[in-house]
């Protein structure tokens, strides 16, 4: 086929009114009524070229056009494609439920307002993404909009917040199983969201308190051994998402490249003290699980040592660590895409003292994503 004729096919295809279905797709995306076809460049789809040469009204669909080159919907099997030596086009994997929800919740960092008679988008990101609880720094307003406090009813009248958590959807909070029922206070009953400084009403925060109506510990948590320390708490109603209150993303991949994770919480700033009134943040080095197991030996209820598939360990340089009251809170990584979001890699589980020579241990979120999705988004596919 000569260059002139190929150019003619391109013009014909682009201007064919029936060729575009209104859905933009990139090369490698699935297409067709049943999703079994693949978007390819026209020159790599002999079936499309043959149809353009032989039919007066071609039915070939255009996925998109890039720099004047049509990307067309190509059938799954075409022997002629081998003759043309078309390079294989990788088919993009379908995003998981958690990844789709992450993109959905990222939109709530933006609000709209009128400016000179025109509607503009306003960026409300509070994520500083700086290398940042013991030895931590004060968090900023809207920096951790997913942060939750888990509350317990004390003496039937006062709510005490002694665990942390993270909002992962409009209705669910992720925390640690050992927070579901506290020895002194009983079952977790409340969740506070949108808080920054618990001692101030002038910090710019507008916190809300909701009741917990359902508590789901992982079925393999037994309350004695420290494995599978993860829980979900269902709220009494959906939360209205805003730049101040919006969910965190879940880490779906077991491996990540960051050498450190960012912990946040209102826990004690020293072992024998009181919880911090101001939300704290601290960067902690992620360390090898085998060295973590050696540190603990048989001192805790971990008879088989640290299980790297379900747990991860951190160590704070200097006097840095999570502490009492941080339990159930997130260990997270700031994301560049989607904008102004974090990916939760761990749930604060246990340690020995605070800022000691012992690592902190977290429940590894990626291992439990299927379990989380089953309960939080049961109708999503």
Automatic annotation (TrEMBL):
Keywords: Disulfide bond, Glycoprotein, Signal. One of its GO terms (biological process) is proteolysis. It comes from the Eukaryota. The keyword Transferase does not apply. InterPro entries: Peptidase_S1_PA, Peptidase_S1_PA_chymotrypsin, Peptidase_S1A, Ser/Thr_Proteases_Immune/Dev, Trypsin_dom, TRYPSIN_HIS, TRYPSIN_SER. This is Uncharacterized protein. Belongs to the peptidase S1 family. CLIP subfamily. It comes from Apolygus lucorum. GO terms for molecular function: serine-type endopeptidase activity. Pfam families: Trypsin (PF00089). PROSITE patterns: TRYPSIN_DOM (PS50240), TRYPSIN_HIS (PS00134), TRYPSIN_SER (PS00135). SUPFAM superfamilies: Trypsin-like serine proteases. The keyword Secreted does not apply.
């Amino acid at each position: 086929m000569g260059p002139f004729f190929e150019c003619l096919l391109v013009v014909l295809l682009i201007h064919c009114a029936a060729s575009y279905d209104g859905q933009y797709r990139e090369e490698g995306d699935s297409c067709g009524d049943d999703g079994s076809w693949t978007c390819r460049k026209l020159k790599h789809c002999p079936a499309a070229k043959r149809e353009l040469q032989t039919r007066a009204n071609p039915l070939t669909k255009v996925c998109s056009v890039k720099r004047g080159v049509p990307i067309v919907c190509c059938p799954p099997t075409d022997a002629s494609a081998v003759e043309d030596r078309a390079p294989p086009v990788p088919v993009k994997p379908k995003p998981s439920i958690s990844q789709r929800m992450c993109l959905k919740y990222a939109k709530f960092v933006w609000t709209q307002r009128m400016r000179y008679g025109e509607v503009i988008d306003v960026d409300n990101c509070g994520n500083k993404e700086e290398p940042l609880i013991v030895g931590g720094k004060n968090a900023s307003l809207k920096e951790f909009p997913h942060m939750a406090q888990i509350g317990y009813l004390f003496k039937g009248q006062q709510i005490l917040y002694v665990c942390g958590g993270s909002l992962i959807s409009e209705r669910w909070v992720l925390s640690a199983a050992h927070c579901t029922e506290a020895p002194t206070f009983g079952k977790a009953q409340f969740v506070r969201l949108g808080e920054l400084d618990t001692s101030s009403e002038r910090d710019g925060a507008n916190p809300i308190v909701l009741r917990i109506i359902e508590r789901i510990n992982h079925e393999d948590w037994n309350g004695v051994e420290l494995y599978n320390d993860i829980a979900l708490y269902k709220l009494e109603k959906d939360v209205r998402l805003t730049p101040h209150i919006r969910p965190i993303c879940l880490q779906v991949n077991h491996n990540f490249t960051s050498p450190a994770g960012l912990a946040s919480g209102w826990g004690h700033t020293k072992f024998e003290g009181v919880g911090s009134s101001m939300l704290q943040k601290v960067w902690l080095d992620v360390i090898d699980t085998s060295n973590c197991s050696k540190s603990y030996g048989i001192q805790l209820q971990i008879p088989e040592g640290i299980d790297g598939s379900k747990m991860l360990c951190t160590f704070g340089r200097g006097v840095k660590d999570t502490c009492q009251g941080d339990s159930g809170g997130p260990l997270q990584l700031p994301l560049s895409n989607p904008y102004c979001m974090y990916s939760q890699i761990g749930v604060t589980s246990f340690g020995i003292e605070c800022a000691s020579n012992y690592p902190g241990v977290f429940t590894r979120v990626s291992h439990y994503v299927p379990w989380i999705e089953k309960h939080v988004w049961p109708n999503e596919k």
